[in-house]
Design a protein that fits this description.
Length: 326
Amino acid sequence: MARKEIVHNIRQRPAETAQGNGETLSDGPVDSGAPSQIERVKNRAPAHGHRVTLEEYWEKWYERPHPHIDVSYEWNNGILEAKPLPNFAQTEQYRWFFRLLSCYLEVNPIAKILCLETGAYMSVRDENLPSRKWEVVFKPDIGIILDDNPAPWGADDQRSYIGVCDIIVEELSDSTSAEIKRDTEEKKDGYARAGVKEYFILDPKDRHLHFFRLGVAGSYEEIEPDEEGVIRSQVLPGFQFRREDLLREPMLVELARDDVYANYVIPELQVVETRVEKAEERADAEAQRADAEAQRADAEAAARRVAEEEAQALKAELARLRQQRS
């Protein structure tokens, strides 16, 4: 499959060591009898660490490289790297954040989401590398591509993305120290090189939970939460979330009643609830009016009874007096 190369000119940076070429995984205890970390990776991804050309990657390794093994490879400067597998907590946090982004984009359709093992090709000039460029095909957990991005996304025939996402979100892979380094250092540096405007690293253990924004110097700066712990995106205006909610993962209905999220998480819920509240207020007012009417009617009926009793008493007295005179 032909691929159009996009190369972004940036200032020179020090040469990088290819992850698959220089990756070090600490083996477990020798006498434990359990497979080492390297062996575990090799067992589920036999081609991990192999050197292949970009053309070979697209043709053989990009989609279902092993018919009987469920593994996905990224391509890092000529090296195949197996995409790590998440655990339950990581999957749940990913799903929660994906739903949050989906809610935002339903209300603010200004971008599209890239995910589902879709590769994003990026290339940056680097005179310090033998190839004179840093070149990768990463498969981000979530990519956000604005509609005004010079490399559009969303055509039916697109099975990979040739361009730079505006936001990338990675759920931290932490099975090995090398995986942690890949997300927190190597991919962070690479995404900054390519010009990804914001990079979020999610971590349910809260050890490497970070939110970065590209600074004027071309490197990432930490996005600090405000006094209420709220992180705000500049790429997606109005997209904001509490840092603690990434760990708590509240239901969307709860978020919809929270001022931090109310503008984009089920906004119609507040409209409906407001209408219900007003209807209940009207019903209460009508009930109070009816009660007042009933009380007034009871008072009038009582007054009529008293008047009738007085009239009957007067009639009886008048009849008695007439009888006395006769």
